[in-house]
# Entry
Amino acid sequence: MFISFEGIEGSGKSTALSRLCSLLALSGRAFVRTMEPGGSKLGQSLRALLLDARNSIGPEAELFLYLADRAQHVRQHIRPALEAGSVVLTDRYADSTIVYQGYGRGLDVRELFRLNELAVNGLWPDCTLIFDLPPELGLERARTRNREQGIDVSEGRFEAEALDFHRRIRAGYLDWAARHPERCVLVDAEASPDAVFAQVSAIVLPRLGAVSE
Ligand code: TMP
# Structure
């Protein structure tokens, strides 16, 4: 079972994923938690390049860096873990490229789908949770988190983007989710952390079988 967590900045997906992992660990269920960009050793170097606001990276170069990160991640970690029977939970995957580089940066979405297919060799998640909330709220949460961690908001290439960019990302996720109802499920991320986690549990746990809260 392969599950991805998607959403705009500050949507709470990583927090919900951490809670889910704690629950699975308690239940003794084998799982692998991973993330993009940065799920492999190569990916960690790519992540540092991609997220450093001092780097000026054009949309095409950005695209190929994300795809390189994903191709290595799938080959080295995700596919072997799935073949070993593990549940794989990833914080972002191919839908991020479709939405950020496509709906956000304006690259052609059909072309991005094709390039993703090449990078992942046809491996798409069984289920994708899309954390949805107004970008104003997400950015405020991301800023608060950055302040608490002593990070200047302008240090993140994406957090520093204009509100209009984040509005396109939210709309992109909603549009893309509607086109892939067989695997995409929306989570109302405006709710409290407990209510968000209740939704996540209700979506994920039945798909994993015998795990209960
Ligand atoms: P994170 O903050 O959730 O770790 O994600 C890093 C940033 O990278 C986030 O702003 C979204 C962006 N991103 C893309 O633009 N394209 C992609 O394919 C991926 C995986 C992330």
In short: The CA atoms of residues 129 and 185 lie 5 Å apart. The longest strand covers residues 2-7. The mean pLDDT is 93. DSSP finds eight helices and five strands in the chain.
